[in-house]
């Protein structure tokens, strides 16, 4: 394992939680292992590991980009991560309001729907 991979796993676990990472690792196969390594080293070991901006700001940017690009599948995971990064519900709302203005109301509306559902699930847990 490279240093970037080890750093990436550390950051990934701190943001997403051990349970999530353990489930993802259990699903990894020989087929997608190179892709998983790329994500761990690139996204988590380089971008998320950078101290250029705070984890809170990274959460807000990530959620806004996911919504703006219509990558809704990962929004619940990153809403859950916001509890670890310090991004509040208000921060998330602000990010999605930016999405509404700069990327479109339908995408922001769907992202807000997913956020509300995820926050409700988190409150029950």
UniProtKB/TrEMBL annotation:
Pfam families: CMD. Residues 35-117 form the Carboxymuconolactone decarboxylase-like domain. One of its GO terms (molecular function) is peroxiredoxin activity. InterPro entries: 4CMD/NDH-1_regulator, AhpD-like, CMD-like, Decarb_PcaC. Transmembrane segments: none annotated. SUPFAM superfamilies: AhpD-like. This is 4-carboxymuconolactone decarboxylase.
